[in-house]
Design goal:
about 500 residues; alpha/beta; 2 domains; seven-stranded mixed beta sheet; six-stranded mixed beta sheet; 16 helices; globular; binds nicotinamide-adenine-dinucleotide
Length: about 500
């Protein structure tokens, strides 16, 4: 049996319960049908039906938000060590079911096993990392003044909403849900309608690990309906959102009446700048990895290559050869490097840029076409002869599509790198230390890597500037979002209190 057929057999075993029972909402530890009936989720691999999914509406969100509100005091007040133990058990549960999570994620989203097996385990790492900080998360400072002993403490903000996208949905959900639970918040999770499967697995694993009913609730449904209701619900104190920039703006508007605290992780059009003095072999590997891995459906992808004139021709020729050699195939085949795009809508969006590139006068140096009709497969694509004003250089395509733009001087590269609405990541390749420092200091991005691809380290701040977002994840930054700071001042004696009306 090949690895592919072996994986398909295993997947079919895991799919059975989904096709028989569909995906219900999970509220207060119970399966609950959606008030809107059901919608269907299909696999992008062959467009086949996976299962029915509960179509949650505002009334389901209301039930879930009330469940999260009712579960909050006990979860907040549970001794930290007990909460920590439950979160570690969640991590162990994820590890035990990592293969099931990865196979379902691939089938639901089109991502390849090659990357999703790691993404499932990264979900477990997220739980372990934040579990380890539960004990100290509420610690504060003492800030003594001449008359007062001032102390600070942190308290969980309350029930929160987590709204996630369809790209690597399992890993991204844990990134939000783990610190929220570690803080002592309860959660209503609204997963993306295009990829509901692994959110169901997560809530099951969490409950099996001992998470009390109502601490994590999952409501499936559409953004403009269930998502909007979550943002508007008065019991929900904050929204942690990952998705498109224009949705981020809606999240802010929808939460205005209830004064929601929002954390927005949004889109990107991230530059990778390759100078002539760089280690060009390593730069080539990183440029390819950061746009063609995870189907290019990656917020941190380096979708704009800025390459110095003097090396451009050679670098692009090597790029074309490698891009044409990338293996597009069935996501469950461990040798596949790219799988199908997530939905028909997204496939239509990505492929529309092949014509846009031509209309703008760029060259399609590799790819630029769909593959077959069975699923939403596209060839990895490279646009050359582009400039930074073109739509292919300014708009987030969110597929395996790279736009290469030449530059002559460092000043020109910097101006182009910053000439975008976004500011999530930037990647700089040079062996000139002073230039690396100068350039990264002026690059408008929340995260920058020098002579490296994106390597996530959980204690570091993750997030973007400009239209790429507001707020940071990771380390203590996550706790800052899910918790309130409280200051308490204790008088240390009988200091003078100004007396009014006493003459
Ligand atoms: P999207 O904005 O369409 O949807 C994301 C989620 O928001 C979904 O669950 C959706 O149902 C919900 N939603 C949609 N409209 C809503 C509304 N009015 N109110 C509340 N919720 C609503 O994004 P997508 O297409 O699923 O994901 C791709 C996008 O996510 C890309 O732009 C990508 O860059 C971004 N992303 C960013 C990061 C990051 O960390 N910065 C990480 C991953 C993905």
């Amino acid at each position: 049996m090949t690895a592919l057929t072996d994986n398909i057999t295993k997947l079919n075993g895991f799919l059975k319960r989904f096709s028989e029972n569909g995906i219900q909402n999970r509220i207060a530890g119970q399966d609950v049908a959606g008030a809107g009936g059901v919608f269907q989720t299909h696999s992008p691999v062959d467009k086949s039906l996976i299962c029915d999914v509960a179509h949650g509406t505002a009334s389901d969100i209301d039930k879930a938000a009330n469940a999260a509100r009712d579960a909050f005091p006990a979860w907040r007040d549970m001794p930290a060590n007990e909460r920590r133990k439950i979160l570690i058990k969640v991590a162990e549960g994820i590890e035990a079911r990592a293969e099931e999570i990865a196979l379902c994620e691939c089938w639901d989203t089109g991502q390849t096993m090659r990357f999703m097996s790691k993404a499932a385990l990264r979900g477990a790492e997220n739980f372990r990392y934040f579990a380890d900080q539960v004990i100290s998360a509420r610690d504060g400072q003492h800030l003594k003044s001449p008359t007062l002993m001032n102390i600070t403490t942190r308290t969980p903000i309350g029930p929160v909403g987590v709204i996630t996208p369809w790209n690597t949905p399992f890993m991204l959900s844990t990134w939000k849900i783990a610190p929220a639970l570690a803080s002592g918040c309860t959660v209503v999770h609204k997963p993306a309608e295009a990829s509901p499967m692994t959110a169901r697995l997560l809530v099951e694993i969490a409950e099996e690990a001992g998470l009390p009913p109502g601490v994590l609730n999952t409501v499936n449904g559409f953004g403009e309906e269930a998502g909007k209701a979550l943002c508007e619900h008065p019991a929900i104190k904050a929204i942690a959102f990952v998705g498109e920039s224009r949705t981020g703006s809606l999240i802010t508007k929808q939460g205005a009446d209830t004064l929601k605290r929002n954390h927005l992780e949004l889109g990107g059009k991230n530059p990778v700048i390759v100078f002539e003095d760089a280690d060009l072999d390593r730069a080539l590997d990183a440029v390819i990895f950061m746009i063609y891995s995870i189907n290019g459906e990656r917020c941190t992808s380096s979708s704009r290559l800025l390459v110095q004139d003097s090396i451009r021709e050679d670098f692009e020729a090597k790029l074309v050869a490698r891009v044409n050699n990338i293996k597009v195939g069935h996501p469950l085949d461990p040798t596949s490097e790219i799988g199908p795009l997530v939905t028909e809508e997204h496939f239509n969006k990505v492929t529309s840029y092949f014509d846009i590139a031509k209309e703008d006068g760029a060259t399609i140096a590799a790819g630029g076409a769909a593959i077959g009709e069975a699923g939403y497969f596209v060839k990895p694509t490279l646009f050359t002869n582009a400039n930074n004003k073109m739509r292919i250089a300014q708009e987030e395509i969110f597929g395996p599509v790279l736009t290469s733009i030449p530059f002559t001087t460092e000043e020109e590269a910097l101006a182009m790198a910053n000439d975008t609405a976004y500011g999530l990541t930037g990647y700089v390749w040079t062996n000139d230390l002073t230039r690396a420092l100068r350039f990264s200091d002026q690059l408008e991005a929340g995260m920058i890597w020098v002579n490296s691809e994106n390597v996530r380290h959980l204690p570091t701040p993750f997030g973007g500037v400009k239209s790429s977002g507001i707020g940071r994840d990771g380390g203590d930054w996550s706790f800052e979002f899910y918790m309130e700071q409280k200051h308490i001042g204790f008088a240390m004696g009988n200091h003078k209190i100004t007396r009014l009306g006493a003459q």
